[in-house]
């Protein structure tokens, strides 16, 4: 999940600070999410999935299909 989170952020051209602001988080907290130092709360995961237009399964590494179901 951690690698995917960074890859998705970089694909969209966001800095960590920009991504953190988009999910209403502090940049240090987002950095800890990306590095695996801090667990990502479910509500934040949902926000990240919406931001990056991908499924929760993809973020969690359960699926290799980045798009939401039905697309």
TrEMBL record:
Q: Where is the HTH cro/C1-type domain?
A: 5-59
* CDD domains per record: HTH_XRE
Name the InterPro entries for this protein.
Answer: Cro/C1-type_HTH (IPR001387), Lambda_DNA-bd_dom_sf (IPR010982)
Q: GO molecular function of the protein, one example?
A: DNA binding
Protein origin, superkingdom: Bacteria
Which PROSITE patterns did the record assign? Answer: HTH_CROC1
Q: Where are the transmembrane segments?
A: none
Give the matching SMART domains. HTH_XRE
The record, for Gene3D superfamilies, names: lambda repressor-like DNA-binding domains
| Entries under Pfam families matching the protein | HTH_3
Full protein name: Helix-turn-helix transcriptional regulator
> What organism is recorded for this protein?
Fusicatenibacter saccharivorans
Q: Name the lineage.
A: Bacteria, Bacillati, Bacillota, Clostridia, Lachnospirales
